[in-house]
Predict the 3D structure of the following.
Amino acid sequence: MKKLTAFLLSATTALACFAANPTLTIDATHPVGKVSPRLYGLMTEEINHSYDGGLYAELIRNRAFLDDASTPIHWSVFTNGGGEASIALDPANAFNDKLTTSLRLTVTKASKKEPAGVANSGYWGIPVQPNTRYHATLLVKAAPGFTGPVTVSIVSDDGSAVYASKSFSGLGADWKKCEIPLKTGKVGPTTMARFALALDRPGTIWISFVSLFPPTWNARPNGLRKDLMQMLVDMNPKFLRFPGGNYLEGDTIESRFDWKKTIGPVAERQLLVNRWNYEFLHRPAPDYYQSFGLGFYEFFQLCEDIGAQPLPILNCGLACQFNSGEACRMEDLDAYIQDALDLIEFANGPTNSVWGAKRATMGHPEPFNLKMMGVGNENWDQPYIERYTRFHAVLKEKHPEIQIVSSAGPFPDDARFKFAWAKLRELHADIIDEHCYAKPDWFFNNTHRFDGYDRNGPKVFFGEYAAQSDKVASVKNRNNLECAIAEAAYMTGLERNGEVLLKPFSPPYYPTMTDAVRAAVEIKFGANGVFRSESPGSAWTRHREVSRQVPPISDAAIAGVAETLFKSGDGEKGNGKQLTAEQLDAVRKIVELGGKFARLARLCKSEGLELRQHEG
Ligand code: AHR
């Protein structure tokens, strides 16, 4: 294909492309390679709220009041004009040793007409849909003299509209778990709403854990968001990599991802601050915590639901080498290896094994059929190889049925990469995970990268790749046309080399609302809407979905996403106003135009035509 230069595209040139009516001849009698049956899978990571605030359907943000030790962030008092109330964190009234604080709500003045209480703003507002059942769960107790009622509701941001509401009483000095169904009526969808707890008379209550779920995928308690799950199903991924990413490494050993802390009773899963809060100066998000409500049990279930093989990646005893690079002592490595063995037992073991029993207790006596597991993410040099070697020896001896994915470091051709490949080849590693974030030129120049790979050596897992319009991790990176075409061109090389590339991924999937860490995302979402990105790379995966038309983007999805974008302002607090028709229209045009350009680009590329686009 001719190299893409400066862009200049007008409607006339576009029409001229079609008018040329070129012929494309395909010689199907001489196939050049097999496309791997395991093309493509998905990469997920807890970045840009892809899990909490995203796939995980929980609507309450800071549900255990533990996100910030000094103040109940995302919670605020409301008084409806005449009431008086205050809130404070109260560790002296904790529910247990896991839920180590509570929220004390003290109402000193309130009436039926002017109730007072506390409200949660959710992640991007509480998404309201018509005729929909929500499920609230609360741990609550009251001071002497107050037994209720407490009114739980979903209300508009300005308090003028009540979308769903229910009251309960019977409170006392002991903690009580309340399950409260809420149902909306004939209302318009909006995310300009919040979740509220109100008292209509003076009293004091403590709340320890507050949860609110909309209808979830397969109607599961503690479940996943239906629209995002449907999108995953539609993408038909052959496997799903979780939970990262640098995220699983932690920037210190202490803050690494530990799968064992993500299973068991949801309220007792220990929170962890998310490393992407502070990793980049341009992305400070001090209130990004992980609840681990979407833990490893839920991940295995998710994979089963979407028909994808699970590919969990575990920490190998090294913290992220871009950060502290802290390494566990070699004499402590057995504990990390044991974590891997226990995970295999948790996924596949019989119900009378220690970890298999835990899986059964959580509701899944049948095995999850784990076949692959990753050891380390983007780790490099001797500290990695010496640790991986020990993992490899033990796992191969005890579980030869599990294929191990090892790491070739963060870049596709530097000294770290060459060192890793040499050592991993000697070890007869199963599958090596290569990553690449580079300028579009790299992708154009490497479409033949895998043609010469040894068919008998380790297989390659091209686990993360994205063309970067500016540079790696730049805030200026954009999902532009050049990146889309560069990745699409590169993917032709992936498809041609199925023998060596057993499991290349689609470009990283980071469902996100406002992705300022990287531009390359496959799915974008807001609180009430979701759509697939047209680029980069997804242009090509989309093109493969020959049997299906891309569904048109619904009005509801546009409205939901637009509302979120305008409201959140890239992570900032928005003005909370309803969107104008013009704003909605602007978002629709941007979304649709992006799709048209990507489709046109594919067509021109396949015809060897040069595509130019005006810089502005
Ligand atoms: O995209 C974010 C990070 O990029 C991933 O966590 C990591 O694996 C890669 O460096």
Notes: Residues 440 and 467 are 5 Å apart (CA to CA). The chain has a mean pLDDT of 82. The chain has 13 helices and 21 strands. Residues 45, 47, 244-247, 377-378, 410, 464, 518 surround alpha-L-arabinofuranose (CB under 6 Å).
